[in-house]
Every structure is written in C-alpha cells, then in structure tokens.
Task: inverse folding
C-alpha cells in the first residue's frame, strides 16, 4: 500500500464514486506523462481499485472498449493495446498464450512475443500510425511449450471512457500452428522430393503455361545432359531450345507451344547438341499439370528429358541392318519364304514367286501344294521340332507341272509364348546341278567302260593287221591266219560282253543320299 499511497499523493482526485467503483484521474499539475499515467491506471485496474464490471456494459460511454461481449465470443485471440500495453484480452487469447487474463492485462504486448520476433512485431505495430498494413506471422510465447504460431492483423481502435485520450490498437491473432506445421512438413517433403529429382538421371523442367520461355524449375541433371548449369537456365542466360539440333528446332518449338491447347500429354524424340558439341538423342515427355479444382486451368507444363542416345544408335543400326536384309531378300536368286505350321505362306520374295510361278496374292497359297510327296513335309516338320533347323532335298511340282529338285534349309522362327510357331526357309533349285552331277557320273561310267574295252580293241586291231599281212604273203599259211582269227574272236567277245551289259541294263545310275541332305550318284549292279 505504500507504493499506492505514493502514487495517489501525486494525483488529483476529481471523482470517486464508491457505488460504481469508478475512479477518474487528472494529471494536470502532477508532472506525469501520458505513458506514466497509463501505467498507474493499469496498476489500479489490476489490483482491483479500478474495475470494469457488467455495469459498464449498461453504460457504453463508461466502457473503454466497444462490443466486449462480441469480442469475447471470437475464436481468434483479441488483444486491445494502448501505449503498447494490453488493456483487454479475450478468452481465445488466453488459451493460445497459455496465460490467464490477469497475467496478460497490464503487461506489454511485446512481452508475449519471443525475442527473435519482437523487432518484426514492433515495426509492424509502428506502421499502423502511418498506413494500413496486412498481416505478419510469428510465434506467441507460451509458459509450458515452445509457443504457437499466430497470424496477426491489427488496426486502429477508438477507445472510450478513461482511455478516450489514448490511441488504441486492436490485434486479432489467428492460431496457424497446425497450418504452419503442415507448411514445414511440406517444405521438408519438397526438399526430399527435390533431392530425388536432382538425383534422377533425367532432366525435369517445368514451364509456365502458354509461355515456353518462362522456366519455373529445372533439376540438376541438366548439367550432365546439356553441359550447362542450373543457374544459367533459371536466370535466362540459356534455354533448352539453344541446345536443340537445327534440323529439329522447328518441330520442337511447335511441340512445346502446343501445350496445353493442342495436347495435354505428348512426347517426341529429337537430337540435342551439348556444350562440348556432342550430339545426343533425347525422348521428351510433356504433361500438363492442372490447378486442383481449378476448372481445367493449367498450372504448369512438366517435361521429362531422357537420354536415349545408346538406344537410338542401336535402333538406327538395326534399321540399317533391316534395310540391308530387305535388299538381300528382295534381290536374292534363291527362294526365301516364311510359312506357318500348316504351310500357309506368310512372306515370299520375288525369286520365290518366280520359281513357283505365282502372283503377289499369298492368301490362298500353301507350300504343301508344291510337294510331289507330302510326306517329305511331315519329315521336315519333325526334324524342325527336334532340332530347330533342318536341310532337306525335296521334289516340287511347279507351274506347268514341271518337277524340280529343291534343297530346303529351314529354321523355327522364335516367337513369344503362346504364339503360333512359324518357319523361315531358303529353297535352292538344284535341278540343273543334279543333272550336271548325273552327266559327270555318266562320264565316269563311260570312262570306266572305255578302260574295259580299250585293250581288247587294241588286240583286235593288231590281229586284223597281222591277218592282212599273212594273206598278202606267198605262200599263205592258213594255220597262222586261223590263229589270228581266234585272237580276234577272243578280243571281240571281251568287247561285246560289257556292251551287252549296257544294252541289257545290267547296271544303272542311282541317286543316293550323302547323309547331309545332298545327293550322290553311283552304279548299282543288278
């Protein structure tokens, strides 16, 4: 009470109404400043000498804060300040701060703010004197925890009653702790996702909708693929289009400018030129991201660029091999074909069509139609099933009922499980070759026959000459002539005997398999 008496001694008491428990002060002549007087008023109010009770609500002129009943019902924390001190706090503020109203009323508002945020809040409240301001976020201190995040919106407030001459500020604080925690969690997730994006071996780049020059984000792999830094891309010094091969640039620009109007999702392949002048192939996959519940409004355009250089090189090599193979098949003099298990033709090259004497229509063409002996086809299929490949000499009947000899080399075509098996083969017409082999065999036979009759013929010729000489001599020796004739008969019989064999077909030329799909000819005596 000594402090109270000291304060009262310097104040002129103008009005004291015991019934209403109201005390009015005047500081004229006391030498006290407005701020010191406010401190005294708040001190009296805090210890109960000055108190606003329900009676003040019946007399608004005496209530310094209008609509206190309404403010008390709000879920936002409300604090009314004057000269930086709290003269009113609703229940929501008490709950947010973890303090009771007695601990809040009369204290400085900045005492509720952590040291790290006090300058921010102080500058914000000071700006209210010159202009209206928006909102700020800070932590409100709590006694038993780390505090709560609040969003502060303040505005000037006209006070009444004992504070009529003092400037007032109404501070509305919304608890955004859960919202702020979600933001922190989202930021943490964003950092984690960004780490994954930077580690992926693909360029991820986002553009603003309708403007392919406005780059929103690019990951770090751009440095490996293009050879430039992320900073160069983001500050506009370099653009993806700068690296596109000139032959593909117009198509790529049309591709990018087509989002999102022409296509929502699309992809294309094109060549780029790195900073080190290396050519690389990329597959560019673009996708439009829309605003959630935005009625189809595009938010951004995401592009993923995958390096497919090795794949593209193999693809080009394979395409070149196919081109060469197609040229070989088309220009081959041998029949190259593909059939199913039933024998229906699936493919047939021009040489095959010429050999078989057929047109381009393969729909009704079956290889079995050309076999002289259909059992040979069954043998071929059995060998294919057992070994996967085979070689076989067969006889085919082609156009004009001409029978030809054909060597077939066939393999089973690899297919996916469950698919119908198909067979590829090359058929070589060996009819002329076999004829030449037969002629060669006949020549050898003739040569052997010549060896067999050559000596008897020489004997016959010599004896004929000797007989002629004996007939010309005088006198003629009949015994010698008869001897010569006897020798000539013996030689004649040696000549007639093999010739009779030939004439009577006691030996013939036979086709015999050589064991590897070919044919040899030999003489077989009957």
Result:
């Amino acid at each position: 009470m000594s402090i109270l008496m000291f304060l009262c001694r310097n104040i002129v008491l103008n009005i004291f109404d015991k019934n209403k428990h109201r005390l009015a002060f005047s500081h004229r002549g006391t030498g006290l400043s407005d701020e010191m007087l406010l401190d005294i008023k708040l001190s009296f109010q805090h210890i109960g000498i000055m108190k606003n009770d329900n009676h003040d609500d019946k007399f608004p002129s005496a209530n310094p804060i209008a609509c206190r009943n309404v403010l008390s019902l709000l879920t936002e924390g409300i604090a009314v300040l004057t000269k930086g001190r709290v003269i009113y706090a609703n229940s929501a503020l008490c709950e947010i701060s973890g303090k009771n109203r007695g601990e809040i009323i009369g204290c400085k508002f900045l005492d509720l703010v952590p040291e790290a945020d006090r300058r921010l809040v102080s500058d914000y409240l000071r700006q209210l004197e010159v202009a209206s301001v928006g909102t700020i976020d800070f932590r409100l201190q709590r006694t038993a925890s780390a505090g709560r995040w609040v969003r502060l919106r303040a505005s000037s407030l006209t006070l009444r009653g004992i504070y009529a001459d003092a400037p007032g500020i109404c501070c509305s604080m919304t608890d955004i702790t859960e919202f702020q925690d979600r933001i922190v969690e989202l930021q943490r997730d964003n950092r984690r996702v960004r780490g994954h994006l930077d580690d992926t071996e693909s360029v991820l780049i986002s553009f603003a909708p309708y403007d392919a020059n406005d780059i929103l984000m690019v990951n770090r792999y751009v440095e490996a693929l293009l050879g430039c830094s992320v900073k160069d891309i983001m500050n506009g010094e370099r653009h993806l289009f700068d690296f596109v091969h000139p032959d593909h640039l117009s198509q790529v620009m049309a591709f990018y400018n087509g989002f999102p109007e022409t296509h929502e999702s699309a992809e294309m392949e094109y060549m780029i030129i790195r900073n080190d002048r290396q050519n690389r192939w990329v597959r560019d996959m673009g996708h439009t991201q829309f605003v959630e519940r935005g009625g189809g409004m595009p938010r951004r355009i995401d592009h993923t660029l995958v390096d497919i250089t090795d794949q593209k090189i193999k693809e080009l090599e394979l395409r070149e091999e196919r081109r060469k193979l197609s040229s070989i098949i088309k220009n081959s003099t041998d029949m190259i074909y593909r059939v199913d298990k039933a024998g229906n033709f699936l493919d047939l090259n021009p040489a095959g069509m010429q050999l078989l004497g057929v047109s381009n229509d393969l729909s009704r063409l079956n290889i079995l139609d050309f076999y002289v002996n259909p059992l040979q086809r069954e043998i071929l299929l059995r060998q294919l099933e057992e070994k996967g490949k085979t070689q076989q000499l067969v006889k085919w009947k082609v156009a004009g009922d001409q029978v030809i000899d054909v060597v077939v080399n066939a393999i089973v075509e690899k297919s996916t499980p469950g698919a119908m098996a198909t067979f590829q083969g090359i058929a070589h017409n060996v009819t002329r070759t076999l004829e030449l082999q037969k002629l060669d065999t006949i020549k050898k036979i003739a040569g052997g026959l010549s060896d067999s009759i050559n000596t008897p013929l020489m004997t016959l010729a010599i004896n004929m000459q000797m007989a002629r000489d004996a007939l010309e001599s005088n006198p003629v020796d009949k015994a010698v002539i008869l001897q010569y004739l006897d020798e000539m008969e013996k030689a004649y019989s040696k000549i007639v005997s093999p010739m009779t064999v030939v004439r009577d077909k006691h030996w013939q030329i036979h086709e015999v398999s050589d064991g590897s799909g070919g044919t040899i000819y030999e003489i077989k005596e009957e």
Confidence is low (pLDDT under 50) at residues 1-32, 40-61. The chain is about 40% helix and 25% strand.
